[in-house]
Amino acid sequence: MKKTINKKSKKKLDKMCFFCKEDNYNLLDSHRIISGEENGKYIWDNVVTVCSNCHRKIHSGEINIEKKYRCTNGGFVIKYMINGFEYWEFE
């Protein structure tokens, strides 16, 4: 079983929104890619730091995060869609 993360520590570590690069700590959220309703946990493989505006876009379907993939170097790549365009970006 993977250890859950501290959401505040994750926000401090990332320092900004993954999508728009907003860096006001008070506007940042920890978003679970697989929701809690689907048994998604707050673990490194399932959390991305986003601002409150982008968080709303995710929940409204404007931004669709498909998956967060672990890289061989220990980092992550996130696959997502915005307006029908597919993006792959390192976290």
What would your notes on this structure say?
By secondary structure, the protein is of the alpha+beta class. It contains 2 helices and 5 strands; from the N terminus they run αββαβββ. 16% of the residues are buried. The model has no long low-confidence stretch (mean pLDDT 95).
Tell me the major beta sheet: 3 strands, antiparallel
Would you identify the regions where 5 or more consecutive residues have pLDDT less than 50?
Answer: none
Shape field: globular
Strand order of the largest sheet: 3-4-5
Q: Tell how many strands the DSSP assignment holds.
A: 5
Q: What is Rg?
A: 12 Å
Q: What is the ordering of alpha helices and beta strands?
A: HEEHEEE
Structural classification: alpha+beta
Number of helices: 2
Portion in beta strands: 25-35%
The percent of residues in helical segments reads 10-25%
Give the termini distance in whole angstroms: 23 Å
* Mean pLDDT across residues: 95
Strand and helix layout:
Layout: H1 7-14, E1 28-32, E2 47-51, H2 52-60, E3 63-70, E4 76-82, E5 85-90
Antiparallel strand pairs: 1-2, 3-4, 4-5
